[in-house]
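Entry 14. Structure prediction run on the chain below.
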Amino acid sequence: MSDDFNMSMRKFLKQVGVTSQQAIEEGLRRKGAAAGQEFKAKVVLTVEGLDVEHTVTGTIKGQN
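Output returned:
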């Protein structure tokens, strides 16, 4: 794969990671989530033109 492809992929994934973490942290603050409280999470990635749909699920624990 080309350097341009790799850079654009890394930039996109970094943006996804950083903005997702910020959104989750804000949600935990608004909720006042207690330490150890668990929340189910799901991310669905779609890529138009490539017929790609990828789902990731997991659990996020609150903290104080």
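Strands lie at 38-47, 52-61.
Filed with the rest of this week's runs.
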